[in-house]
Design goal:
Blueprint lengths: L20 H7 L18 E12 L2 E9 L10 E2 L2 E3 L7 H13 L7 E5 L3 E2 L4 E9 L13 E8 H4 L5 E7 L6 E7 L9 H17 L2
Parallel strand pairs: 1-7
Antiparallel strand pairs: 1-2, 1-4, 2-3, 2-8, 5-7, 6-7, 9-10
Length: about 210
């Protein structure tokens, strides 16, 4: 399916190299203690958050991904962002994302500078997920929880913003019945980024692009 028209169509990917953390922060919505209301479904969606980790390497921004193990309950072997279900003791959704990231890949929450949030989305596994964007210093040592994560890898924002690396599929959302457009990236170093993870990556890129106009 041809790529739908949208903010990526007019992007010069190289421009992403020039952004600093303040630029990114201004283009994301401020952190909020509670997410937008979840859809009314039965059973109700589970509230969750993921961290979209950004870092600079070789003069440009990268986005960090995880590849899930085959032992997890959902999304076995798929590319994802670190994160999970919110706990009652979590102060807010940023806390959820940072806690889960620490548990999964060993990234210290004190090393992450939260830059903002994205709009929540409903996954096919009935999670109402809020993406939390944060930056951390590179290089970094990770300690993976082998039951949950098989590998971590980073991809340049410039590569992710190149529309020639994307294909689009139309499908029916299994929970709502709505027709949705699903993005799937060409393999990057043997990893395929697609589904909710690709949607979140594109949300980040669209926020950065729209803020620049």
């Amino acid at each position: 399916m041809a790529a739908p028209s949208g903010p990526l169509s007019g992007l010069v990917p190289e421009a992403l190299r020039e952004l600093n953390e303040d630029d990114i922060r201004r283009r994301l919505r401020p952190a909020a203690p509670t997410p937008a209301a979840a859809p009314r479904l039965s059973p109700p969606p589970r509230i969750a958050a993921v961290l979209v980790p950004l870092y600079r390497n070789a003069g440009e921004w990268h986005m960090l991904f995880t590849e899930r193990s085959e032992e997890v309950a959902d999304h076995k072997g798929q590319v994802s962002f670190p994160g999970g279900q919110s706990h009652p003791q979590d102060a807010d959704l940023a806390t959820t994302a940072l806690r889960e990231t620490h548990e999964e890949i060993g990234l210290d929450p004190r090393e992450v500078r939260v830059l903002g949030l994205l709009q929540p989305m409903l996954t096919v596994t009935n999670f109402w997920v809020t993406p939390v964007v944060g930056a951390f210093a590179w290089p970094q040592t990770f300690h993976l929880a082998p039951v949950e994560v098989r590998e971590v890898f980073g991809a340049p924002l410039r590569w992710l913003a190149d529309a020639t690396h994307l294909e689009w599929l139309e499908r029916e959302h299994p929970l709502t019945g709505e027709h949705v457009i699903t993005a799937i990236y060409a393999p990057y170093e043997g990893h395929t980024i697609w589904g909710a993870t690709a949607r979140i990556a594109l949300q980040v890129l669209e926020a950065l692009i729209q803020g620049a106009r």
